[in-house]
Design brief:
Blueprint: H1 2-11, E1 13-17, E2 23-27, H2 33-48, H3 50-53, H4 66-75, H5 87-99, H6 110-120, H7 122-125, H8 138-147, H9 159-171, H10 178-185, H11 187-190, H12 203-212, H13 224-234
Antiparallel strand pairs: 1-2
Helix pairs in contact: 1-2, 2-5, 6-9, 10-13
Length: about 240
């Protein structure tokens, strides 16, 4: 809407009245093409991206390319609604993200880390306090970005930003009750607790799975007390499989 209004403004002429009472015309000022393109991209960003990635000046997606945005639309469920954007519109968004000067410093403070998590991770993994990724290391986050299609859009994060997110996840206390521990560490693969595939699993069975299954190796940081709590939560769940 904003873009088309600008086009109409630059194409119209305003009637003037000359001193002799006769009508005179003078061409309206024309906005530079580059200014119009920037305003168009900024409007598209505000309408389609700011809700998740923050205002343009401090966007978490500054510097992303056309192909990265298109990949995000294709692979990230939360971006599917943007499939109606044309290639020209996506290019306009990429251009304005490339030219926007950030108004935040690159140094990441603890508050920045929390904001980075909220903008880039919370949509899939929940609020930081109960995140499904508490304790995730830099290498684990980087592996996810490299191998999980839904995380490809995060490839624009810098090493410092990934380190900040990992720091926020490491410094957030893990809950102590079995149900919450299960939800954070197991539910994404094995379903919610009430219908979990792991019903009745003993501590030794969980330990063996963590040791023998590569996709579970990262859970080796769980303590014996945490494993006992998870096993206790699973004790009354029926239908578990070996």
């Amino acid at each position: 809407m904003g873009f088309f209004a600008l086009v109409e403004l630059q194409s119209c002429k305003h009637d003037l009245i000359a001193p002799n009472g006769q009508e005179a015309t003078s061409p309206a000022k024309t906005l530079p093409t580059t200014t119009i393109a920037t305003l168009y991209g900024a409007t598209l960003y505000a309408n389609n991206c700011a809700g998740c990635h923050g205002v343009l000046a401090s966007s978490t997606k500054r510097g992303v390319t056309l192909s990265q945005i298109q990949n995000g639309i294709t692979s990230v469920s939360g971006m599917k609604s943007l499939s109606s954007l044309s290639a020209a519109q996506i290019q306009a968004i990429a251009d304005v993200l490339k030219t926007t000067t950030p108004n935040v410093t690159p140094t990441q403070t603890p508050t920045d880390a929390i904001t980075l998590y909220a903008n880039n991770c919370a949509g899939c993994h929940g609020a930081l306090a109960s995140s499904a990724k508490l304790g995730a290391t830099v290498s684990r986050i980087q592996n996810g970005i490299n191998s999980v299609s839904g995380m490809k859009s995060l490839s624009s994060l810098t090493s410092a930003q990934i380190q900040a997110i990992a720091g926020a996840l490491a410094s957030t206390p893990m809950p102590t009750d079995g149900a919450s521990l299960y939800s954070i560490n197991c539910a994404s693969c094995h379903g919610i607790l009430a219908t979990s595939q792991l019903g009745g699993s003993s501590v030794s069975k969980i330990e063996s799975a963590i040791r023998d299954k590569s996709q579970m190796n990262y859970l080796s940081t769980l303590t014996l007390i945490q494993l006992q709590a998870i096993s206790g939560a699973l004790a009354n769940v029926k239908g578990g499989s070996d």
